[in-house]
Amino acid sequence: MGLQPLEFSDCYLDSPWFRERVRAHEAELEKTNKFIKELLKDGKNLIAATKNLSAAQRKFAHSLRDFKFEFIGDAETDDERYIDASLHEFSNFLKNLEEQREILALSVTETLIKPLERFRKEQLGAVKEEKKKFDKETEKNYSLLEKHLNLSAKKKELQLQEADNQVEQNRKHFYELSLEYVCKLQEIQERKKFECVEPVLSFFQGLFTFYHQGYELAKDFNHYKMALQINIQNTRNRFEGTRSEVEELMNKIRRNPQEHKRANHFTMEGYLYVQEKRPAPFGSSWVKHYCMYRKETKKFSMIPFEHRSGGKVGDAELFVLTYCTKRNTDTIDRRFCFDLEASDRPGVPVTMQAFSEEDRKLWMEALDGKEALLINLNKANAKREGNAQLDKIGFTIIKKCISAVETRGINDQGLYRVVGVSSKVQRLLSLLMDSKTCNEVDLENSVDWEVKTITSAMKQYLRSLPEPLMTYELHGEFIVPAKSGSPESRVNAVHFLVHKLPEKNKEMLEILVKHLANVSKHAKRNLMTVANLGVVFGPTLMRPQEETVAAIMDLKFQNIVVEILIENHEKIFKTLPDATFPEPISMSVSPPNAPPRQSRRQGQRIKRPLAVYNLCLELDDADSHSSPREDTPTGSMDSLSSQSPTPAFSSSPLGLLDGNHLIMDSGDLAGWTTNLPAQSRPSMVSWMNIPSANPAATDAALPTFFFPNPATGTDRAVESVAHRKARAVYPCEAEHSSELSFQIGAIFEDVQFSREPGWLEGTLNGKRGLIPQNYVQFL
Q1: Which residue windows does the record flag with biased composition (Basic and acidic residues) (predicted)?
Q2: Does the pLDDT of residue 740 top 80, yes or no?
Q3: Mean pLDDT (whole number) for 269-280
Q4: CA torsion sign, 678 to 679 to 680 to 685?
Q5: What is the DSSP string of 325-389?
């Protein structure tokens, strides 16, 4: 279990457990800060002294290996797991270079030291400053509160009102600061993964460039690097989407904190001051307690807690409530007081003081106190309501929009990510949702409606449904398989759950997913890969019933579910699932009689070089397809290349850039006609023409390229074997998302030789992927 999410609603309770979670986040950031400082120190030693290079490399490797990112929530995506494991992988690569003595180029300072220093000073430093403000404001708030509560009730009403206003303003300021601090803590926890790893990735590319003896290792590293860059890019994209959702939730809670109070098993909870009587002549003292009450059992518990003493928690006290009575100011020299009596201490009331009159009213109502004013405590989250329904008009809207998009704009860059003008979107949606005007709207031939207006209207309609298309009931079940299991088991689980949806929901989902699959097939032109479509439609098709930070952290898994639907829509919607829910399946080993699979690294499986075939594709009309800035950026090549390129050559995580050409450090030369300025270049994923972070999603025919023959050392053509078929002679369970799972007798179509020795590529049931060569027989 990683770090617990910090709920914005808890800022208003400021409970002991909330403070514990805040301290856990602060401790993790301090650990990250120390790690970065150590990493920077080691990096500078590498550049400074050749004689200490080997020792510095070992220390650097140990620093990378021993650090592990903590994550928010209960699970990570595959991309995050690869990022978490990346530091250990970097450590392994560095150990193989221990004997080398070459000096790193001066560019290491720009690609490694400065980005990390900037992240530590600007990001982590900003959090430290926020912490100081938060601690200072905590001290000020509770000191002022205690001083305020000690005011005599006999003072003039005007003085009391002024004091109340001052406390209220200070409390609001404290809550504002608390909300911002919690938001910043969670943002930096998510940001640090790619901000820390990306500079290290650039450093390693420079390292292999300047070490000729590490040439062979650099070729293997290049494959891993490309996969990791996609993992980082996907994580960055999901971070941007998650951050906007978190900020929206924070603003909702800021506007009305009571309406977004989290549901729990306590009827009422919060801080109260409890009067503790002492023997004469010492009088009494007032001690702050965190109190919780359950109306069903009438159990009242309270825990002494002092914010200013480091958050020390005292022993809990529990009793059964007998009655509650309001205390007037003529019987006690304090305001906002009421008495409680416990069943085990009859006749001995406990006097408590609330923070305000409103607070006392809430407690009196919850405790069924005498003279309590009736107030409305209906604070349930307002459900999203709208006129949109899954009826005949709804299906007509979706079909008309899809038909118009596929007719007019299937190749538009940023399709579904570029949003339309809000007023036009609302006007179109109102026309479509009106049964009198719906059939009169011509989307395919009318120039009045832009494609981005149509796509935005369709997304708005889906978001306006009373319940998301994939339902509240099944939301949690859809999320579970996205967090664990093999690729095959995830598909089977989603397949099973889709057929549990109501018939209209399933029918609408099938129409939409089939369309999105068609959009992804044109990713070469519209740049909307399966991963990008998942980012756009994850929050649209799925959403939790209760909006919390914990639920928003699962947004990335919603995207994965949508990706699974798009990549496997034929199987999911055209075939019936198994009768029972499939359990998560771990990566299985080969059957007893099956031959061993080919692997290029002893004891460890080589990760596939994702989209290596697409690397050599030229951009088609790069100048004529520049898209406007999208609402969810996919990044840019600026974030991947060196911060300050030299005139002749500039280093990047991909290799050396010479003018407009990319020279791969494995020896391959890919020509790129990229005349776009730096700020207009497509993202790494789109620039490389990668349809998906999952290579199995690539269904386009692969072109012919020349690669070094491992056996002869000469170049050979990897020729496409048109319409060649093969039959499986052994069963196989995929160990990676780029591979196919199959049973004995499965027939593969369009089988080709793969670049990786010992592997073939083929298509099975509409899905393309890798096949062990010694598991099949050509027909």
Answers
A1: 622-632
A2: yes
A3: 80
A4: positive
A5: EEPPTTTSSSSSEEEEEETTSTT--EEEE-SSHHHHHHHHHHTT-BTPPP-----PPPPP--S--
